[in-house]
Amino acid sequence: MNLKSSEKKEKNDVEIVIEVSPEEMEEAVNKAYHKNKGRIAVPGFRKGKAPRAIIERMYGKEMFLGDAMEALMPEVLRYAMKDTEFNVVGYPKVTDFDVKDDTKGAEITLMVALYPEITLGEYKGLSASKPDIDIPDSEIDAEIEKIRTRNARIEKVDRAAAMGDTTIIDFEGFIDGVPFDGGKGENYELELGSSSFIPGFEEQIVGMKIGEERDLDLVFPEQYKEDLAGRPVIFKVKLNEVKEKILPELDDEFAKDVSEFDTLKEYKDDIKANLLKSRMAEVDEVFENELMQQVIESMQGDIPEAMIEGKMDMISENFNRQMSSYGMQPAQYMQMLGITPEIYKERMRKQAEQQVKATLALEKIAELENIEITEEMIEDEYKEAAEIYKMEVEKIKENVSKNDITKDLKLKAAAKIITDSAKITKEKPAKSESTEKKATTKKAAPKKAATEKKEN
To answer: Which residues, in sequence order, are bridge partners of residue 234?
Structure first.
C-alpha cells in the first residue's frame, strides 16, 4: 500500500487517498472468491468447483469486489491513520473505491476529521457566584433520625396500623371484577410510607386493625404498564400483622453504638462537618461549571461531528449501565420522565457537545500555560486511585495508561487555573445543567409497583 495524498478540505476534514497495489488487490479478490464460491451456482460445475475466471465472466468482475474491499479495509485504515501527517480524530469514512482496470490495483479515498484547532477568549479573572454555606440544626437532626431509623428494633404490636409501621398483608387486585396477573400477594411485608405501591394504597391501610379486610378503590398511574395505565382497580386487602419501629434513645450510648465517638455532641459535630464538606463540594462544582460555561462561550473553532458522536456513545454506555444497576431498561426510564427517545437523544447530544468543548478548552489552556506533569505526580495519582478502589497500584497501572493519567492531570491543572483566578460573587447560583441531571438521575431509582414484591 502507498499513501498517494492527504489534503485538508473545508472545516476540519482531510481527504486521504490510499493506493492498493495489483498484488494486494489480487490477493483480496482471491480471498473473496474462496469465501463465496461454495454459494455460487454455475451451469456445468458443482457448487464450489467453478473457477474464478468463469464466475467473473458470467457475473462480472465486480462479483467479488465488495468482499475484497471489506477484507482490505482494516489494513487500509491502519495505514491511513499511521502515515498521515495530520492529527486526526475518529475513524475515516470511505468516500470512493476505484479499481484500476489496467493494473487491477485500486485507489481508496477516505475522509477523516482533524483534531480541531481552537482559540480561547479570557479564561482568567472571570466571575461566578458562590454563596455562603450554612448547615442548620434541622439538617443534622434529620441525618440523626435516618441513622436512628436504620438502627431501630422491629416489634409486633396489637393496634391499628399507622404510617411508618411495617405491615404483613394479603392482597389481590381486580379490574372490572376480574383478577389480573401479578396483582396478588400473600403475607407481603409492606412499610407504610415507603411509596412502594401505587398512590393511595398505603394510605388506605392506615387505621386497619389486625384481621380486618378492606377494599381499596384506586386508579393506576398514567405512567405505568401499558395494559394497566390509568385504569381503575380494586384491591382486596387483609391485614395480618402490624410491626412498629422502636427507635433507640438519642444519647451518648447511641453515639457510641453507631460511631467512633463517645458523646452525642461529638457525633453531631462530625455529621455537621461531613454535611459541610459535601455541600462545599456541590457549591464548588456549580461555581466551576459557571466559569467553564463562560470559557466555552468565548471559544472559537469547528468541532468535528465524530468527536461529539464518540462522546455520545460513551454517555449512552454509562447511562445503560446505570439503568441496569437500577434493574431498568432505558426505555422504562424515558417513559417515567415522559420523554421520547428523540428528546433524550437531543439532550444527550447537548451534554456530549458541552463535555467535548470543555475538554478542548482545558487542553488549550494546558498548552498555553505550558503545564507539565512530573513522574512524581503521576505516581501519586496511581496511589490515590489504588487507595480509592482498594486495588494494588500495579493493577491500576495495567488498566489505566500513563498517557491517560497525564492527560487527566493536565485537565485538572488547567481547570484549577480558571477557578483560582476567578472572582467570587455571593449571589445564589442557578442550578447548572449537570447538577439538574444529577438530581434527575438520583430520582431515577424506580418505585416498586403494587404488583411487585420487595426484594430483601
So the answer is: 174, 217
